[in-house]
Structure formats: structure tokens, C-alpha cells
């Protein structure tokens, strides 16, 4: 019986064969997908891919922090399809981090030295009190068994904090990715003296008026929805009437992230100013100046008529052009589906669900349009699925 390969042996084989791998960490659900760039006896560096199959940054990991290496799976096969699709459509790839390494170099020493000497923003992964912690910032001093790290907060510029990280607590380092590069370009902004107090509106009676004014001013805002989700929407209102509105969404990198249709009773609060909002707007400005705001396969310039029943318009357009929508319903159910028919007499929308086991569940579902709280559409994941790239 063949002996199971060690993690190092799996990494070595994957490096030689230039295999795409998934690296599963101990004590974390975060999985890194990529190709091994450098391999040492106790650590390695991967060129990593984001969820959409676009190469985005690198990660240094200690082998002792790895629980499992996967080289063949359904997820990896799907990722290879996304990578091939992206390459075929000439989608933006970020240049790899400039860090020439000699065979005799210690990976840890070389990466720490490069990040320190060039004062490059990095994300440090440490193991503290039984769990992994992720801190973004700059290395300010280095010694044999540790380093000093200035932790930056994108949400509150006043909360800069100098910490000491023992080398033995360090599990990994992310560097060179899009978001880290944008933070690098905005370091002069992320300072305590530039802190802005959040301006938040929670009075639902004001939501319609403020949304309308933000649309007229073409001003950015953050919308926090009235549920337990851990994400929020950042963007510009591009259409609004007393019943509904549409927002052009930007992601955490200040890049186009599709559109979302929202009912006013879906809102928990509006954030009109603050550190994070101002930083994302700066990211947007930098991306537009560099021509990186929207992927070339996406339409970031859609227009909607305020006077229309916008919900009905979006659904009819989706049916006509077979466009995917992610629905959020009043009962908190959410799913992605292709609308196929709309009966205005009954108010019923028929949709075709994705990833349904047809032996136990019908791929066809009917929903009352009055139960729809949100619809997200024209984002990149939807584009991939519309083109049958899982």
C-alpha cells in the first residue's frame, strides 16, 4: 500500500507540474486557490486567484499552518473553466509582486525584507488566542524573532495601532493584491487626522427623500439592509421613485459590482459620510483613471427611467435577454434564477432555478412579485453563470 504524501511532497509535485491547487488552512475556513511560485522546506508562496478566476495577488504560508492540499476536485475544475474563460476574454490580470528570490534565500526573510524596505501594504495572518486574525498595514521594524506592525483601519482612520508580531505567531502574509495595492496608493488619506465621523440615517421616514437627493447629487452612499446579512451595499443611486430604487454597486476594490433593485422597507440605515465611504470613492477615482473600473464584458452604464415600474422593467428585460437575477424575498429566502415568465394579472413570476437536484426538487419556481425585497443583477458572477461557466 502506497504511503500518503506529506504536505510538502504534495506541494513539490504541484509545483513541478504547475498544478492549480486549493490550500486549506488549519483554524480557518478561508481557502487559497492558486499556483505555487516558490517552495521552501517549511513555507511556500502562491500566486492566488479570486473567486472569479482572475489572478489577484500572492500569499506566503507556513506549511505547518496547512491542513490539506487539494489538487483534483469539482471546485478546481470549475476554477480552471473560469480562468480559461477570463483569459479568452482578455480580462484584467494584475502584475505579480516584484520580488526576485534566489534558491538560497529564506522565503520568510525575503518577503519580510521586501515588504519592510519598500513599505508595502500587506495582510498579516496570525494565530492568537486559538484563532486566526487578519491585520492590514505596514511593517515598521524587523528583528530576528518578530516584527512591529502598524495596523490600519479602513473603517476608522483614527484607529491606527502599533503591534508586535512574534515570528512564531505568523501563519501567513497576503501581498500584491488589488485591494492592498489600492490601500498603498491611498496611504496619505488613511491617517488619524483625516478621520470623518459617520453620518448615519436610521429614520425610515427620511429614506425616500435622502435617496432621491443622493441620486440628483450623484453622491455615493452605503445601504445596510434590514436583516442579519454581514454585507452591505456601496454605490450610487441611478433611478428612484416613491416605491423603489436602483443602485449601481461598487465592490470592496472600488470597482463596478453590478446593480441592485431595492424596496425602501428593505433598508435598515443609510450611511452618507465616513472614512470607509470616502476611501471607496477614492478607490473608484483611481480605478476610473487607470481604466480598471469595470471589466470589459460588463455594462456599467445602464440607465433606468424613474417614472417606470422599475421592478417590472427589470424582470421583462431579464426574461427577454435571459439574464440571471439574485432574489431576496420578504421571508429572507434568497436564490439566483433566470426569470422565464411574468403574469401581471396574478402577480406571479416564474423562474428557473440553478443547481437543483431535479430528482427531489423542481427547477421551476413561482414567486409573488410583491414578496421581492431585492434583486441583484449584471454582476460578474452572474455573467459567468449566464455563459455557463460555473
From TrEMBL:
Lineage top rank: taxon: Bacteria
Name of the protein described by the UniProt record: Uncharacterized protein
Biological source species: Lentilactobacillus farraginis DSM 18382 = JCM 14108
Amino acid at each position: 500500500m502506497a504511503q500518503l504524501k506529506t504536505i510538502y511532497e504534495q506541494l513539490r509535485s504541484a509545483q513541478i507540474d504547475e498544478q492549480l491547487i486549493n490550500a486549506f488552512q488549519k483554524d480557518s475556513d478561508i481557502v487559497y486557490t492558486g499556483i505555487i511560485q516558490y517552495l521552501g522546506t517549511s513555507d511556500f508562496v502562491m500566486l492566488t486567484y479570486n473567486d472569479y478566476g482572475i489572478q489577484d495577488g500572492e500569499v506566503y504560508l507556513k506549511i505547518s499552518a496547512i491542513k490539506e492540499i487539494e489538487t483534483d476536485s469539482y471546485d478546481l475544475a470549475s476554477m480552471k473553466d473560469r480562468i480559461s474563460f477570463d483569459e479568452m476574454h482578455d480580462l484584467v490580470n494584475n502584475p505579480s509582486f516584484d520580488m526576485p528570490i534566489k534558491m538560497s534565500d529564506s522565503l520568510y526573510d525575503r518577503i519580510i525584507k521586501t515588504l519592510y524596505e519598500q513599505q508595502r501594504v500587506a495582510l498579516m495572518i496570525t494565530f492568537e488566542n486559538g484563532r486566526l486574525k487578519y491585520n492590514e498595514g505596514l511593517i515598521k521594524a524587523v528583528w530576528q524573532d518578530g516584527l512591529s506592525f502598524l495596523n490600519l483601519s479602513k473603517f476608522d482612520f483614527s484607529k491606527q495601532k502599533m503591534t508586535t508580531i512574534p515570528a512564531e505567531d505568523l501563519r501567513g502574509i497576503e501581498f500584491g493584491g488589488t485591494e492592498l495595492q489600492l490601500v498603498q496608493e491611498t496611504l496619505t488619506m488613511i491617517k488619524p487626522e483625516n478621520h470623518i465621523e459617520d453620518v448615519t440615517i436610521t429614520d425610515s421616514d427620511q429614506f425616500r427623500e435622502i435617496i432621491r437627493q443622493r441620486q440628483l447629487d450623484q453622491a455615493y452612499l452605503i445601504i445596510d439592509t434590514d436583516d442579519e446579512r454581514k454585507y452591505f451595499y456601496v454605490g450610487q443611486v441611478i433611478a428612484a421613485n416613491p416605491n423603489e430604487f436602483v443602485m449601481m454597486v461598487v465592490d470592496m476594490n472600488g470597482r463596478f459590482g453590478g446593480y441592485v433593485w431595492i424596496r425602501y422597507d428593505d433598508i435598515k440605515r443609510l450611511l452618507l459620510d465616513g472614512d470607509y465611504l470616502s476611501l471607496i470613492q477614492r478607490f473608484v477615482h483611481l480605478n476610473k483613471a487607470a481604466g480598471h473600473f469595470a471589466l470589459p464584458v460588463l455594462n456599467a452604464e445602464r440607465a433606468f427611467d424613474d417614472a417606470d415600474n422599475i421592478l417590472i422593467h427589470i424582470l421583462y428585460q431579464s426574461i427577454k435577454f435571459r439574464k440571471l437575477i439574485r432574489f431576496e424575498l420578504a421571508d429572507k429566502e434568497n436564490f439566483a434564477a433566470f426569470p422565464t415568465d411574468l403574469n401581471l394579472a396574478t402577480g406571479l413570476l416564474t423562474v428557473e432555478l440553478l443547481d437543483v437536484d431535479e430528482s427531489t426538487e423542481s427547477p421551476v419556481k413561482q414567486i409573488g412579485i410583491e414578496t421581492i425585497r431585492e434583486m441583484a443583477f449584471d454582476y460578474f458572477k452572474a455573467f459567468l453563470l449566464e455563459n455557463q461557466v460555473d
